[in-house]
């Protein structure tokens, strides 16, 4: 029964997000029709790729419960981007750059998991602390300057477009969401994650290695942020120490907007991807319409409250 309700809730969130996206696009078509073209879609997906990867990791951490949250995602994206590129400039083979970004991201995520599971520090506090450490390191080692020296072959991938879709979105973000959806819905690991989020005590009593699973989830979040750092290098052509700025709140907003219950145990990643695309489309549209960034933040907040309220009311009436 619970699975049935969860499925209905996921479909409801998806329906609301798709309906809002259609209304948004229709509004832009009326107010500024010249901005609606294929290049706008490509731009939205390019901006969405980095946020989507960070949001996917955030969603997994929250879904697993235990007051899980990862406020360090922005710091990990920034630090992996600049650290990987700096090591290549120091003499490591450029072909290792993707591996270095993913490795650094995983290690930084493991540190978060170690702080949360071994030292029993609240996730909010632990990841807030590492956010400052990771972000500060990225700024300290670079002096705040962007790092150049991205290999040409990586730029070809990062800026490549196939049928209007950016290559990083097609080859990393989309497969990551599909693989995660399969893991959550079709494997024992997925059932463990939902069980941990729904009732951690019961999960432990049934023999699930909660701490080990949670550490792996934080490592996965770091890995996805490392992938986001790699995408930023390949797309922008430099390693920017502030590339992850505000990703922590944006990723958390996308996760909740996509239907992930803040206490864990409920939600799906399809809604998270839809929420990311809706958020980026909204921000792009408001920018093109000349709406002040201060108002943009307020509008995103109103959108989040509206979607969560609609989903809550639908459950009450069901």
Number of strands: 2
Evaluate the radius of gyration: 19 Å
Low-confidence stretches: 1-5
State the helical fraction: over 70%
Strand pairing plus helix content: what structural class? mainly alpha
Summary tags:
76% helix, single chain, 318 residues, 13 helices, mainly alpha, two-stranded antiparallel ribbon
Notes on the protein architecture:
The chain has 318 residues and is mostly helical. Helix content is 76%, strand content 1%. The protein has 13 helices and 2 strands, in the order ααααααββααααααα. A two-stranded antiparallel sheet has the order 1-2. The chain is globular, with a radius of gyration of 19 Å.
Give the structure's gist in a few sentences.
With 318 residues, this protein is mostly helical.
């Amino acid at each position: 029964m619970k699975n049935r309700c969860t499925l209905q809730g996921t479909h409801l969130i998806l329906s609301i997000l798709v309906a809002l996206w259609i209304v948004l696009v229709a509004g832009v078509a009326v107010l500024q029709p010249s901005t609606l073209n294929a290049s706008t879609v490509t731009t939205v997906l390019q901006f969405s790729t980095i946020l989507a990867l960070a949001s996917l990791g955030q969603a997994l951490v929250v879904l697993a419960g235990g007051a899980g949250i990862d406020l360090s995602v922005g710091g990990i994206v920034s630090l992996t981007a600049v650290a990987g590129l700096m090591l290549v400039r120091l003499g490591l083979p450029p072909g290792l750059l993707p591996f270095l970004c993913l490795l650094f991201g995983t290690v930084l995520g493991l540190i978060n998991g170690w702080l949360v599971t071994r030292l029993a520090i609240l996730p909010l506090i632990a990841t807030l602390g590492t956010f400052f450490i990771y972000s500060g390191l990225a700024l300290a080692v670079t002096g705040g300057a962007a790092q150049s020296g991205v290999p040409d072959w990586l730029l070809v991938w990062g800026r490549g477009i196939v049928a209007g879709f950016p290559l990083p979105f097609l080859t990393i973000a989309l497969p990551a969401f599909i693989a995660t959806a399969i893991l959550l819905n079709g494997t024992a690991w997925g059932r463990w994650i939902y069980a941990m989020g729904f009732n951690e005590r019961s999960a432990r009593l049934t023999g699930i290695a909660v701490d080990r699973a949670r550490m792996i989830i934080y490592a996965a979040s770091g890995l996805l942020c490392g992938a986001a750092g790699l995408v930023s290098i390949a797309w922008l052509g430099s390693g920017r120490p502030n590339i992850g700025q505000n990703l922590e709140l944006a990723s958390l907003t996308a996760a909740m907007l996509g239907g992930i219950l803040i206490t864990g145990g409920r939600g799906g990643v399809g809604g998270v991807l839809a929420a990311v695309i809706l958020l980026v489309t909204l921000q792009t549209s408001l920018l093109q319409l000349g709406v002040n960034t201060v108002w943009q933040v307020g509008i995103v907040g109103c959108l989040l409250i509206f979607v969560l309220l609609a989903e809550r009311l639908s459950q009450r009436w069901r």
